[in-house]
Amino acid sequence: MPNETSTVNPFETAKQQIDIVAKQIHLDGGVLEVLKHPKRELTVHFPVRMDDGSFRVYTGYRVQYNMARGPTKGGIRFHPQVSLDEVRALAAWMTWKCAVVNIPYGGAKGGVICDPKSMSRGELERLTRRYASEISLIIGPEIDIPAPDVYTDSQTMAWIMDTYSMQAGYSVPGVVTGKPIPLGGSEGRGEATGRGCSIVIREAAKDAGIRVKGAKVAVQGFGNAGSVAARLLYDEQGAQIVAVSDSKGGIFKADGLNPHAVEEHKQKTGSVVGFPGTKAISNAEVLEAKVDILVPAALENQITAKNAPKIEAKVVAEAANGPTLPEADTILFEKKATVLPDILANAGGVTVSYFEWAQDIQGFFWPLAEVNQRLDRVMVQSYADVHKVAVEHKVHNRTAAYILAIQRVVDAIRLRGIYP
Hints:
- The protein has helices at about 10-25, 30-35, 85-100, 120-135, 155-170, 190-210, 225-235, 260-270, 285, 325-335, 340-345, 350-360, 370-395, 395-415, and strands at about 40-50, 55-65, 70-80, 105-115, 145-150, 215-220, 240-245, 250-255, 280, 295, 315, 340.
- With about 425 residues, it is an alpha/beta fold.
- It has a seven-stranded mixed sheet with strand order 9-8-7-6-10-11-12, with helices on both faces. Strands 1-2-4-3-5 form a five-stranded mixed sheet.
- The model is unreliable at about 1-5 (pLDDT under 50).
């Protein structure tokens, strides 16, 4: 995805973030070096039979970043631009995301360089099964638990689970999360990211002095996370959704939109654009709308030094990964806006993935109400932990979340010691 930071190496960015926190918590140089290196990296090259009978060799990766707090967890993406450094960075960020919500996982990530849009279902199944077979050496319910990511879904996870189970000789549902419910998936997993985001908005609004009931909300990116967050803020907290957008453009209505009706319109037409009674606006204008709460739920690098001064929202909740650039963070902090960083605001997904794994391991499944209740408890505590660190260190929430997460990983490394 071309953007103004597309030339930046994501793993260099991830390491810089670790350096910033290391200074804040006076981290020992040796432990800092451990934190800046992935524990294990696997690169695989494997043939896949195409529909026309020919064979093509694909390259895939699986990076396990840190295992100090438990088995690693992280998605698998199928994309033409997958690179080893991107996978390393995403694995590092998963490590911090799991630590910030205090679930007993380290971080991992995987990817295959391919163009899934140009492949048939049969080709995708063969690619998935062969990749799963190649990485089966280092995945498993007690080692590393993959999940869906860009251009992978519950069907992809079903194929991986089946491939791993065939090699084991028995069903191993806990090897992946994000599975279909009949194969050991969890209730509530589909809307977990948006629900987690709506919970931390509720908690942050109290500290920001905003009543969510009647508050104006703009959502950039009306996909899974954005649409669920909008719906729950509207249904459960009485917020007024005034602006939403997707890749084709945005809509605005000063007296509020019904997100259920917008969702129906999007399913029929393929976009929120053209919803009756609304004014057409751009994705950029959604960010600058006159609202109390902004939910960037689309692409990375959306809030920059150029548009941050024009953002009016008092609470910015990152349902997307990396929507805010570092210089924009500083501007928003000076404006006294509360930014809820991605590793906190969108951690509802990995939290319910953890619940799914726990249910699989026990062979005991929870009803939706229990899943949501447990998610609420985790997100409330995680926001409180981050807010406390932000106040103590006089830093914005992103730095606070990294301080909290990295300190938890460092504590685990120190308690375990360095083997042998």
